[in-house]
Specification:
The structure holds two protein chains of two kinds. By secondary structure, chain A is of the alpha+beta class. Helices cover 48% and strands 13% of the residues of chain A. In chain A, the strands form three sheets. In chain A, strands 1, 2, 3, 5, 6 and 9 form a six-stranded mixed beta sheet that branches. In chain A, helix 10 (371-399) runs antiparallel to helix 11 (411-418). The chains are: A alpha+beta, B mainly alpha. At the A-B interface, helix 1, helix 2, helix 3, helix 8 and helix 9 of A face helix 2, helix 4, helix 5, helix 7 and helix 8 of B.
């Protein structure tokens, strides 16, 4: 170990292990370390080191291969019992194996399955969820359209009920209505929860979720009446096949509308069981996840910048010794705010999760009174935490001097993962305004 | 500033350096800052930001319709939402800390971390805190001093604080942030692994550089 780092550790006034236990809990900490050891020792995951030199196709293929290998490994070790409650563990497992922070199946685990659980009837959950848990159905969440983002009332995709056949006809009436951006939509998914305007007898009943099969379950060929593909290269997230999807009067059974909160009967009668805001719960869930995720990304950048600041020496003092750059007040003012904000965001993430869980428990009992609070809270915090994390990660990158610009720093990769957090699930200014609207109302 | 202090003449854009305004003595009085006081400041700041834009909206709506009034106050609304979010994060951190029964040395350093976070955020948003009359310039100055003190207090624990995040090298995938600190050896190996280094002479030399030289 570098002597400067060794001395830093020796001189600390506390044992980092105690703080790790505070952050993760003793049991989780041990599990994380066990997983890491298993992955490090498994040759299956060694190839992932090659990511920076691979083509897009190779990166995607390797990411899918690693995911499959990890699923088998997790099952083998009893970590996966066909339940998405282990998804946090799955994320950690994957990130350790592949270095890339995300994977082509992330929307499947983070949005598709939770939407079935949250918005399906008991019968629909029984039908769809086991298939999702075993990856027979690989799904995504198709809401955003080419010409429409956070303003979801402006979405154009229609689901028109046909009483004669008891089917919904899903259609993309314009180029701007093409579903665009959902992760995993391009090549990975064979199913999607599609958000569309429900129309019965010419009357619009607003936005609702519909289960749409996109590809043949055996051949994986796109089904008739559907056009879909990858949206091409992006700033980062190269492992994810963000996609586009266009419907041409595509028919699905009536029972494929997720009907926990609103129903359409065989004869076309619409009834609502909950307030319309329940439809947006998935967004609150994902925004809560982003609040937690940006904390970990910022903490990683802070770790890199701080350790490097302890090792790097620069500019001789009057005794001719180059001090550690961490001894310069200006350098401290770069890394210490990043460290402290990481901790603040960790605890913030825990609290938001607690609030979300209590609101969800109430919703399950039919009490939806706290939904506006949840929406306001997750909108504001998603925007604020991702904004601040982005700024601080850039400062961490600069705190590494020229080397921060090299991919060798590891910070360039973190920055690529953070930047999209400021625009996905709602561009931040729009989210601040959603939060402000709630504040005015309250 | 040196020239200004010596009474030398300064260019017009720098003349302000030579004209320090008199500060009333009552503004320089010391104020004690503790967690509770700091949290009150965050709360008051968030509240006043919201009340301020709400009042602006109400006034605007007497002259124009709701939509136009809303559009003319978007910046104030965003600011109010930000101050609310800043307040929330601070509140959650302080309440986690006060409710905890953690190991005492770890808790002591987390208390410093939390105080730095609060002080630094007030200073980062000092424009709003000043505008909302939650903070005066004298208090801001005291907070700046406290922030520098906290930097020095946290400095010895900086590495241990990031070690506690417990990210393995494999996850960080960084030559600079390695646990063992062998940064330069790793950077050297990283350079050697560049795909451009597969050949001592890159094919583009013969293909493009030589013909170009021959034509010049």
């Amino acid at each position: 170990v570098n002597p400067d780092l060794a001395r830093e550790r020796k001189n600390a006034t506390f044992n980092p292990e105690d703080l790790s236990i505070i952050l993760y809990g003793k049991e989780n900490l041990e599990l994380r370390r066990k997983i890491f050891k298993e992955i490090s020792e498994d040759p299956n995951f060694a190839k992932a080191k090659m990511f920076p030199t691979m083509s897009r196709d190779e990166v995607y293929e390797e990411a899918v291969r690693i995911f499959g290998a990890l699923q088998r490994k997790m099952k083998e070790h009893g970590y996966v019992k066909g339940c998405f409650d282990t998804y946090a563990l799955q994320h950690y497992y994957y990130k350790n194996a592949a270095f890339i922070g995300t994977y082509p199946f992330s929307v499947h685990t983070d949005m598709y399955a939770p939407t079935i659980k949250g918005q399906g009837t008991d019968e629909q959950i029984a039908e769809f969820l086991p298939k999702a848990e075993t990856y027979q159905h690989i799904g995504t969440y198709a809401q955003t359209e080419l010409g429409h983002g956070t303003f979801i009332r402006g979405l154009e995709t229609t689901a028109t009920y046909d009483k004669n056949t008891e089917e919904f006809v899903i259609h993309s009436p314009t180029i701007t209505s093409i579903k665009y951006w959902p992760g995993g939509l391009g090549k990975t998914s064979n199913y999607a929860v599609v958000m569309a305007q429900l129309i019965i007898d010419g009357k619009n009943y607003g936005l609702h979720p519909f289960m749409c099969q996109l590809r043949d379950l055996k051949t994986h060929q796109p089904l008739a009446g559907i056009e879909l593909g990858d949206i091409n290269r992006k700033f980062g997230y190269e492992v994810v096949d963000n996609g586009y999807l266009r419907f041409f009067h595509y028919r699905i059974p009536r029972t494929n509308m997720l009907m926990r909160n609103a129903k359409v009967s065989k004869d076309g009668e619409f009834s609502r069981q909950a307030i319309p805001q329940v439809t947006y719960l998935t967004m609150s869930y994902v925004r809560m996840g982003i609040v937690q995720e940006v904390a970990t990304l910022l903490a990683q950048a802070a770790t890199i910048a701080t350790r490097y600041s302890a090792v790097r020496r620069q500019t001789a003092n009057s005794q001719g010794i180059e001090p550690q750059i961490l001894d310069y007040q200006t350098q401290q003012m770069k890394v210490i705010p990043a460290i402290c904000t990481s901790y603040a965001f960790f605890f913030n993430g825990f609290e938001v999760r607690k609030i979300y869980d209590s609101v969800m428990a109430a919703v399950e009992k039919g009490d939806v009174s706290r939904l506006p609070e949840m929406h306001s809270l997750t909108s504001g915090l998603k925007a604020y935490c991702s904004d601040v994390s982005c700024d601080l990660v850039e400062i961490c990158r600069r705190s590494c001097g020229g080397h921060g610009y090299s991919n060798a720093s590891g910070i360039t990769r973190i920055y690529q993962l953070l930047v999209p957090c400021c625009t996905f699930e709602g561009e931040n200014t729009v989210l601040y305004l959603q939060c402000a609207r709630s504040l005015m109302k309250f | 500033l040196g020239k200004a202090q010596k009474g030398e003449e300064l260019p017009s854009s720098l003349q302000f350096l030579g004209h320090l305004p008199d500060v009333p003595p009552e503004l320089m009085s010391a104020v004690k800052f503790d967690m509770s006081t700091l949290m009150t400041a965050f709360q008051l700041n968030a509240l006043r930001s919201v009340l301020h834009v709400a009042s602006e909206l109400q006034t605007a709506q007497k002259k124009v319709n709701y939509e136009t009034a809303w559009n003319n106050n978007l910046q104030g609304l965003v600011e109010a939402a930000k101050m609310y979010s800043v307040y929330l994060v601070a509140k959650f951190f302080v309440s986690a800390l006060s409710a905890s029964q953690w190991e005492s040395r770890a808790k002591a350093v987390l208390t410093q971390v939390c105080e730095f976070y609060l002080v630094n955020n007030i200073l980062d948003h000092s424009g709003t805190f000043l505008q909302n009359d939650v903070l005066n310039p004298s208090q801001a100055s005291l907070l700046r001093t406290r922030r520098i003190e906290l930097l020095a207090e946290l400095r010895p624990n900086a590495v241990a604080l990031v070690d506690a995040f417990d990210y393995p090298d494999r996850l960080l995938n960084s030559c600079l942030g390695r646990y063992d600190g062998n940064v330069y050896e790793a950077l050297y190996e990283y350079a050697k692994s560049s795909s451009l280094n597969q050949h001592q002479v890159h094919p583009s030399f013969h293909k493009y550089v030589k013909p170009m030289r021959e034509t010049l």
